[in-house]
Write the structure tokens for this entry.
Amino acid sequence: MGTDMKNRAAVVGSAQTEFRGAWSDRQHVDLITQAVSQALLGTGLRMADVDFVIDSGSDFLDGRSISNCGFLGAMGAHHKEESRVEEDGLWSAVYATTKILAGSGSVGLVVAYSKSSESDPRNFWSTLAEPFTQRPVGLDQHSAAGLYAQRYLARYGIDPEALRAVSDRAWAAASDNSWVDAKHAMLADPYWEEFVATPLRRRDMARPVDGAVALVVAAEHVARQVTNRPVWITGMGSAIDQHFLAARDATSFPAAAAAAANAFRMSGASSARDFDVVEVSAGSTVGELMVLEAIGLAEPGRAMDLYAPGSAPGLNASGGSLPADVVMATGLVRLHEVASQLGGRSAHGPTGATTGLAHGAGGIGMQNHCVVTLETS
């Protein structure tokens, strides 16, 4: 694939903590410190070599205003240029890459984290809803996902029971991922069969977890010094849909399609089918299907075909966001996964992969979308 970028930037290191339903014996700073130190390990880079730090988190979930100020030491940002992005970490990675391509630095550290167990993520999502007509009626991430699911399934004549194939595949893949405390057998508990937002059950919803992820982005002259297998960032795109849920198309994600189109234009790709590895984020099973159709991995209404046995081996080999949704960090986790698989640092994913796509989503009802493409040689 080609790229229109005059300069190049690459992912030269990345790491995550284990993702758990609750890290009861670790503070935010502990999780962040672990991810940052492991991301730098093996690169030959020290914190002194990092020009800037960009982080993603939520004051609401952290329980205090300007919460990132309390984590500067853990992020290695003391006496450094530091910026906060109040959105999923994938947007922070785009910010960091843009700074490097613009010549504002040679090495950037991107950090995203969440301890959802210490708060109620549903309250967090509801604060993003319009406060006068949407929030008072109880609109949140779950109810928005249920409304989308009703319209999508009805339009394409899909039985809600077919969605089990999506959640089963996600949890089965997560069972083979040593960094996620999710086992496929957990879905046998009746708890996961309870309806959350008809027609969606708990097994259809992304499971909030605790954890942190860190990623090192470097300019080409640095990347070639620190690794013999840089993972180049070849394309980036982001877009936002209407704020009012009722004003959006209930059966597709045009913002995801627009974000992907921008990334494909930069990378020279035509659709997600051009990539060996695809890691996407979603708040629900139906949300995942809609993302896959928006980025061109399947035709409208046909994403369920990707979940037939043996299909799409490069799709969410990590398990994706359904078994482990690190709120504010899930998209960056997808980028870490793609970079690790392409860079030969992952125990899962297709062998011989050279190209990859990472997707992140934000906002209530997956209003915002970001796509980043990568390749290695």
